[in-house]
Write a structure and sequence with these properties.
The complex is a heterodimer. Chain A is an alpha+beta fold. Chain A is built from 13 helices and 9 strands. In chain A, α9 packs across α11. The longest helix of chain A is centred in the first third of the chain and has 38 residues. By secondary structure, chain B is α+β, with helices and mostly antiparallel strands. The chains are: A alpha+beta, B alpha+beta.
């Protein structure tokens, strides 16, 4: 700068001012170079922030330089201002670029440090399980709901009228005996109670519900009655004195045996799978006429015969038939006008067929290890 | 019913293999449990001729025999039987034979003497149970012939499971008729020619039926001069095939006729009947006297009741029926079993042959009450056709004379009080087709019914058939019963499956059912597992738990329980759950979360039926989770069960729920201070609490166990059908904390209620976030309850001034109600 001053004193003033501008510009350039270096040298976002403060902060280098601009004549100031803005912008951009770089690197580092062994167990409150029998009951109820059946509920302690008589069971039928059916003490003080006999029993079938419904409701009737039933069997691997049945009843005009077949064939395919066949074998029940037992083809051997189906290729799953006219008469329905069908299936039986349970008693033991499987 | 296939083929010309017949029968209504092949597995057993018999040198009971089996060199066989002599022909199992029981015959040494085979008894051949000695074959048996061929025992036996409505199928002739109907074949009945000789039976026997209800028909014949001995082999074999043991020729004939024709018979030793003044034996069929003793021929002494019928022998009384009956002593238990004293023995000369029918109901009860089931009782309780009694007696007498060498006295004593008439039915073919959903032609209907023994004629109107059903088919009293016969023989498989077309049907579940399912779903979401326990309970269950009976009705007692543990119907679900907890713990399961939805039973004096209530109950023990790497295992307590219930009430939309400390006097089965009754809007729903340590001990359960039991009826009655919608807030809230130091006896609920009523409109919610006790800082018997209070206005942002004012007012009022100091 000195050279200008010496060469031209008049210009010297001008030169001196110009020198000042030049001085500021070169300071700015130095600042830019220093800032770039510092920015490049910052290895963390925190260090970078320090760099920002050192160069651009209130007490930073740029501010100091700008302060020097106060000595400039007014007309020079815009140029110097522009120069400083350019430098500031450049540094800010460099800061931002480097900042992004560092932030990305730090995030990557942090995430690397945060990585977990995804094979470790999760954190949860365990949710509970539905009992196998009730879950099968749900499934079957759902199937019937889909074809227009209502599920109805009834008493577990019944009179022999609804459990037997109204279902056309002869007075001396062995099922009515003390060997097969649980009787409870009659507290009515009525005739039977005084004789020491009882007409009160634990229902042996949910059909009693059907008798009630037929008395209470005009046809058409399309119902199922799922529920607990009781029979005097010693609890062993294949028997329980308390088990579950789903019985169904249809009463309507023009109901045929073909309807019974079609309905139960549909239901069996829904329960066991579309590839399973059904067959109807004539049988005898007091409350239906004609009566049949229904077999479903064995799912293991597909009808070839194996140990599971005892070589027959078929598994017995339910009993059914056309409602006996006597049952209609008991319920006050005219069998010449209406016809219908009824069926009953054991839920435990279906559970056994689907899951091959070796010992039914596990169903009533509440063993967590069993319950948690379903 | 065991059906010998070779016997069946003599009655009906069926040609399919036995297994095919079995399948066909299953599809026409007769289940076949098994097809047994008799005479199978007799390969290697041949007719042998015993040449020598010597005492075993070192054993008193053994014989050393040499036996010719037709192979040249006789075999040396050591034998333990005693019933034979040298020169007898016997079955011999040679070395290498696999016996019917699976045993393989090997060359062996018996007390030092080598044996090359085994001489066989009937039981070893598997053809009867007789193991008393070797089966001695007739002299003309051809040595070396395979024994199965020689005995003609190769046969298939179908074990048929005859349904209770088909008494006619409990006989070979009945099964032949059924098979004839299945395959559209004629049946050729077996007939024996009856030759009557000598004295009329009426001179020897008189019969009085004292009660027509017990016995509709009783016939008697006499066969004189019988020679009691073993039956001919064909007869014995058929009796064995049918499942009975050959006894002697007289008894075997009665069994044969029973199996062949379905008519139970009884042969009495006529000599055992006292002769009355007129020289005749007087048979009386009467009710037994209560307490009357009687020894059946199985040697068991039994006490009879007046519901049972006996065949008795009058000892005096002349023509007076009542006096005859009064003097009579029982000889047989009618329809069930004969008596020991009148049994046919080797000494019997004259046989009194009974062919009768007895009341199904009485026979059934007698059999059940004495736990005595016989081939006769099985048939009588299902119904024996009275129309055939005499004819079948004739058949039996003819056969008996033939095999015993006796003579049949002229005539039959036949007391026939009630005669079963055939049913005359009108069958409407169109209705049959409509009900079955199958266009079964009229010709098929006629053919099937005719094969079954019906007579079928055209009816008065076209499309109608007049059907007369045979009296051996008591199961066909109505038109509908004929439909079943037609359907099962025409083929259920031929009916096309359809679905009902019903017009006015609506399926689905009721609100109650949906709610009950919802309860279960919520409990499962809370981590509980559904279980089902017995509805039965020991009578002292409540007492053991310490649960008072009040409000639970009287116990519903079983008259015939299976065990003392199952004597009554449960009145609470909790004891059953505790038993499951104990069983889990016994198996090493620590964390137990069980719930059950089910019924309890409350007996009501003066009412026939008990009340049934649906409850939901739970029992929790251990912790929710095992200690995990990232989750602590916190022991379950009262608040875990309460938390479950809070979720339940929220989900069921049950408002105004209260948990009220339960007075220990009212809840003695729960640990005092850790039990609450649960109320919703004043309605009692049930209880929740930790089970009393003494109750747990009584159920062998390791505590603590927290449980609850709620009425589902109560829950559903309290549940709101729908919820009110409240718009989500649009303006910000202000949260202020309030820590209040109160006496220990002040409940959180009361403080909360005080805050709620003091908070005014701006107080939106109260959240208790800390309970703190510190004797030094707070003082003895004090606790600090810290609440976070949220203030908000619906329509504006609250100013701090407003909040301060509301808070200040709230604190003043709350302190006024519950006392206490605000902690700074």
């Amino acid at each position: 700068m000195k050279w200008g001053w010496k060469r031209h004193p008049r210009l010297g003033v001008v030169n001196a001012r110009r020198d000042l501008v030049m001085e500021i510009v070169s300071q700015l350039e130095r600042l830019r170079t220093d800032a770039y270096a510092a920015i490049e040298g910052a290895s963390t976002t925190a260090a970078l922030e320090e760099v920002r403060v050192a160069f651009l902060g209130k007490k930073g280098s740029l501010t100091t330089i700008l302060r020097g601009m106060g000595q400039l004549p007014t007309e020079e100031r815009p140029a110097a201002g522009r120069a400083s803005n350019t430098v500031r912008d450049a540094i800010e951009e460099a800061l931002s670029t480097r900042g992004d770089e560092l932030a990305r690197a730090e995030l990557a580092h942090r995430m690397a440090a945060d990585a977990v062994d995804v094979t470790l167990p999760g954190r949860s409150m365990p949710i509970g399980s539905r009992h196998l029998i009730n879950s099968i009951r749900d499934e079957i109820s759902e199937i019937f709901a889909g074809i227009g059946y209502r599920a109805v509920d009834g008493r577990e302690v019944e009179t022999d009228y609804y459990n037997f008589t109204a279902l056309n069971t002869p007075p001396d039928h062995p099922a009515r005996g003390m060997q097969d059916t649980f009787y409870v003490v009659d507290r009515s003080g009525g005739q039977a109670a005084v004789r020491g006999e009882s007409n009160v029993l634990l229902r042996t079938q949910t059909s009693g519900v059907q008798a009630h419904i037929m008395e209470e409701q005009e046809p058409p009737i399309y119902i199922i009655a799922p529920g607990k039933v009781y029979r005097r069997d010693v609890a062993d691997p294949s028997h329980l004195p308390q088990f579950n049945q789903i019985e169904g009843l249809v009463v309507d005009k023009e109901i045929t045996f073909g309807d019974l077949k079609g309905t139960l064939d549909y239901v069996c395919k829904q329960i066991f799978g579309p590839d399973r066949e059904t067959r109807f074998r004539p049988h005898f029940f007091p409350f239906t006429e004609p009566s049949a037992e229904v077999d479903v083809s064995c799912g293991i051997c597909h009808g070839e015969g194996c140990r599971f189906c005892k070589g027959t290729g078929w598994l017995e799953i339910l009993g059914c038939g056309m409602v006996d006219p006597n049952v209609f008469v008991y319920a006050g329905i005219d069998p010449e006008v209406y016809s219908g069908f009824a069926f009953g299936m054991g839920v435990e039986r279906i559970a056994c067929l689907k899951y091959d349970i070796p010992d039914l008693r596990v169903l009533l033991e509440g063993d967590m290890r069993f319950l948690r499987q379903y | 019913m065991r059906v010998s296939y070779s016997w069946l083929k003599t009655l009906v010309d069926v040609t399919v293999p036995a297994a095919v017949l079995a399948d066909r029968l299953a599809l026409t209504g007769t289940e076949v449990d098994a097809v047994d092949t008799v005479g199978d597995g007799l390969d290697g057993i041949v007719v042998g001729h015993i040449l020598t018999r010597e005492r075993h040198p070192d054993a008193d009971t053994l014989w050393v025999t040499t036996v010719d089996v037709g192979t040249g060199e006789p075999l040396q066989i050591v034998c333990g039987a005693q019933n034979f002599v040298a020169s007898d022909k016997v079955p011999v199992a040679c070395v290498g034979t696999t016996m019917p029981d699976g045993r393989v015959i090997k060359k062996s040494k018996l007390r030092g003497v080598v044996s090359y085979g085994m001489n066989c008894s009937e039981s070893e051949l598997g053809i009867s149970a007789d193991a008393r000695g070797l089966l001695i074959l007739p002299e003309d048996a051809q040595v070396g012939m395979p024994i199965a061929r020689y005995l003609g025992v190769a046969d298939a036996v179908l074990d048929c499971d005859v349904t209770p409505n088909r008494p006619d199928c409990l006989s070979m002739h009945g099964m032949a008729r059924e098979v004839g109907a299945v395959y559209d074949l004629d049946v050729t009945p077996e007939r024996f020619e009856l030759i009557e000789e000598g004295e009329p039976v009426a001179n020897l026997v008189d019969v009085t039926i004292a009660d027509a209800e017990l016995c509709p028909r009783y016939t008697a014949r006499v066969i004189r001069g019988v020679k009691v001995g073993p039956s001919p082999e064909w007869l014995a074999r058929r009796v064995v095939a049918a499942g009975a043991r050959p006894v002697n020729n007289v008894v075997d004939v009665t069994n044969y006729v029973l199996f062949s024709l379905g008519q139970p018979l009884h042969a009495f030793d006529l000599g055992r009947f006292p002769k009355m003044a007129d020289g005749r034996a007087h048979v009386v069929v009467r009710a037994a006297r209560d307490g009357e003793p009687f020894t059946t021929l199985d040697g068991t002494s039994r006490e009879l009741t007046s519901d049972m019928a006996v065949i008795a022998a009058a000892t005096s009384g002349g023509d007076d029926a009542a006096a005859l009956a009064a003097s009579s002593i029982p000889m047989a238990l009618a329809g069930v079993m004969g008596g020991l004293d009148s049994e046919v023995t080797d000494a019997t000369v004259d046989v009194l042959l009974e062919s009768a029918t007895f009341s199904p109901a009485h026979t059934s009860r007698t059999s059940r009450n004495l736990s005595l089931v016989s081939e006769a009782s099985i048939r009588y309780e299902r119904g024996v056709d009275d129309n055939a009694c005499a004819d079948f007696s004739n058949q039996a007498a003819a056969l008996m004379a033939q095999v015993t060498g006796g003579t049949v006295c002229a005539g039959i004593v036949d007391t026939y009080l009630t005669c079963t008439e055939p049913n005359r039915l009108t069958l409407r073919v169109a209705r049959l087709q409509a009900l079955l959903g199958a266009l079964i032609p009229e010709a098929d209907v006629t053919r099937i019914l005719t094969r079954l023994g019906c007579t079928v004629e055209p009816g008065e109107k076209p499309g109608e058939l007049e059907v007369r059903t045979p009296t051996f088919r008591p199961d066909l009293p109505r038109e509908i019963d004929l439909y079943e016969e037609v359907l099962r023989l025409w083929g259920m498989d031929r009916v096309r499956p359809t679905l009902p077309g019903g017009r006015e049907r609506i399926g689905g579940r009721t609100v109650e059912q949906i709610r009950a399912d919802r309860v279960g779903a919520i409990l499962r979401a809370c981590g509980l597992n559904e279980t089902v326990t017995y509805s039965f309970a020991p009578h002292d269950d409540l007492e053991r738990l310490g649960m008072p009976e009040e409000g639970r009705g009287t116990a519903v007692e079983l008259i015939n329980p299976m065990s003392a543990e199952q004597r009554v119907m449960r009145r609470s679900i909790v004891p059953g759950l505790l038993r499951s907890v104990a069983s889990n713990q016994a198996h090493g399961v620590r964390d137990i979360h069980l719930y059950e939805e089910g019924r309890v039973f409350a007996g009501v004096e003066g009412r026939e039926l008990p009340r049934e209530h649906k409850l939901v109950a739970a029992a929790l023990a251990g912790a929710w989770v095992e200690p995990g790497w990232n989750q602590p295992s916190v022991p379950l307590d009262f608040f875990d069960a309460k938390g479950v219930l809070e979720n339940l009430f929220r989900e069921l939309a049950i408002p105004k729920v209260r948990f009220k400390a339960l007075d220990p006097e009212r809840g003695p089965w729960l640990q005092p201070g850790r039990a609450a009754e649960v109320l919703a809007g004043g309605r009692q729903l049930g209880w929740v609490g930790e089970v009393h340590p003494l109750a747990l001990e009584a159920f062998h359960v390791k505590g603590p166990v927290v449980a609850f039991e709620l009425s589902e009826e109560g829950l559903f009655a309290s549940a709101r059908v729908s919820r009110d919608h409240v718009d989500v807030p649009h303006f910000p809230a202000v949260s202020v904390d309030l820590a209040l130091v109160v006496d220990e006896c002040v409940t959180a609920e009361s403080v909360e209620q005080a805050i709620a009523s003091a908070g005014g409109k701006l107080l939106e919610s109260i959240h208790l976030f800390d309970v703190y006790r510190d004797e030094d800082r707070l003082g003895l018997g004090k606790k600090s309850l810290a609440f976070s209070l949220t203030f908000r206005a619906e329509d504006r942002t609250l100013t701090s001034d407003e909040v301060d004012k509301a808070y200040g007012r709230l604190v003043r009022k709350v302190r006024g109600v519950v006392g206490g100091e605000v902690r700074g």
